[in-house]
């Protein structure tokens, strides 16, 4: 890890799936960041052929990036030139891959959902603490500039007064019954279901806006949840977070049975003096929000609002990568934006949702 001028982070990539391809492709875009320099140092795959194909596809516009391709993950962990390992494998493999990287003394940025349950997350963080390495959950939504601005307006400037309700829904079209048995979306050992895959984003919007998203928090929410299944796989989750003292509610829904075009409004935040609509292609991809004054009783038309735009040319992975590089350069062992306690808390909430809804994984 170099700290001259801006920090340089040399990444080792674990698995060559979609998340890893998005991450790598974005990090090598020329001039996309002025906070850190990113080098794809090594790529680990199940075979050299797959690794080389991945590199050819994701680094085609970055001739200066020449990573070492390994036919195993262990070789990435052992590479002395790798500063941080990015883990983009399915949820069910996160604990194993994190522990392997930690045992090798590597820093880790692991995709969401961090693990299958809170117990696994605590195991990973305990191992990181004992080894003295950095570990963070790659909840990229929290790192976006749009989220920082929205939190400031809500919780510091209180532009809509006291927030009392947030709703967020994530829909995707995935016909579980038509997928082959080998699909990760049908494999409970890998965390199949909508909650860990996409529901965590809807849940995150509720936590960010109702609480501010980071400790300290004033009270723990109660959880009421229900889930629906197709062929034993959870395809729809609905949950309510209720805060006993303040009376605030978070209404969180997620579904893989999309039958209509999803709304461009991905979250709605209601306050005593107004409301905010967050827009984007999905709760994972916000692009703008509009702050409205309170809708006057008897007025038929929506009041005029103030729009805040945050266009992102890529997926948005660069923000979490930059912040990881800055954390490492400062010697931190936890993310300032997604500390270990917050990862565990989110996993605990999803554990309770699954307990009430009926989703059970082999590791539970």
From TrEMBL:
Keywords carried by this UniProt record: Oxidoreductase
A molecular function (GO) term: nucleotide binding
SUPFAM superfamilies: Glyceraldehyde-3-phosphate dehydrogenase-like, C-terminal domain, NAD(P)-binding Rossmann-fold domains
Gfo/Idh/MocA-like oxidoreductase N-terminal domain ranges (all copies): 39-136
EC number: 1.1.1.179
Catalysis: reaction(s): D-xylose + NADP(+) = D-xylono-1,5-lactone + NADPH + H(+)
Entries under Gene3D superfamilies matching the protein: Dihydrodipicolinate Reductase, domain 2 (3.30.360.10), NAD(P)-binding Rossmann-like Domain (3.40.50.720)
InterPro entries tied to this protein: Gfo/Idh/MocA-like_OxRdtase_N (IPR000683), Gfo/Idh/MocA_domain (IPR050984), NAD(P)-bd_dom_sf (IPR036291)
Family, similarity comment: Belongs to the Gfo/Idh/MocA family.
Protein name: D-xylose 1-dehydrogenase (NADP(+), D-xylono-1,5-lactone-forming)
The organism of origin for this protein: Pestalotiopsis fici (strain W106-1 / CGMCC3.15140)
């Amino acid at each position: 890890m170099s700290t001259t001028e801006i920090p340089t982070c040399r990444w080792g990539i674990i698995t060559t799936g979609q998340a890893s391809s998005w991450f790598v492709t974005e990090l090598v875009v020329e001039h996309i960041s002025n906070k850190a320099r990113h080098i794809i140092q090594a790529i680990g795959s199940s075979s050299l052929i797959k690794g080389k194909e991945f590199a050819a596809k994701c680094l085609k516009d970055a001739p200066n990036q020449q990573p070492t391709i390994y036919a195993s993950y262990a070789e990435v962990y052992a590479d002395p030139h790798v500063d941080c390992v990015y883990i983009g494998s399915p949820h069910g493999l996160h604990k194993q891959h994190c522990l392997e990287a930690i045992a090798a003394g590597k820093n880790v940025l692991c995709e969401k959902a961090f693990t299958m349950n809170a117990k696994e997350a605590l195991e990973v963080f305990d191992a990181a603490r004992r080894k003295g390495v950095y570990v963070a959950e790659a909840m990229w939504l929290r790192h976006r500039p749009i989220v920082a601005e929205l939190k400031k307006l809500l919780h510091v400037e209180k532009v809509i007064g006291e927030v009392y309700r947030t709703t967020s829904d994530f829909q995707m079209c995935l016909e579980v019954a038509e997928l082959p048995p080998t699909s990760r979306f049908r494999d409970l050992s890998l965390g199949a279901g909508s909650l860990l895959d996409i529901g965590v984003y809807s849940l995150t919007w509720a936590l960010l806006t109702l609480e501010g998203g980071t400790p300290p928090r004033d009270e723990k929410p109660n959880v009421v949840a229900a889930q629906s299944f197709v062929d034993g796989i959870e395809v729809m989750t609905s949950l309510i977070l209720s805060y006993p003292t303040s009376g605030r509610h978070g209404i969180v829904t997620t579904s893989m049975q999309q039958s209509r075009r999803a709304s461009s409004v991905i979250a709605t935040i209601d306050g005593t003096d107004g409301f905010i609509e967050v827009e984007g292609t999905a709760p994972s991809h916000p692009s703008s929000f509009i702050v409205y004054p309170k809708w006057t009783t008897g007025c038929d038309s929506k009041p005029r609002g103030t729009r805040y735009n945050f266009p992102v040319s890529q997926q948005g992975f660069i923000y979490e990568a930059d912040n990881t590089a800055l954390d490492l350069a400062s010697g931190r062992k936890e993310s300032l934006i997604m500390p270990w306690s917050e990862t565990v808390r989110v996993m605990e909430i999803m554990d309770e949702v699954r307990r009430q809804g009926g989703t059970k994984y082999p590791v539970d």
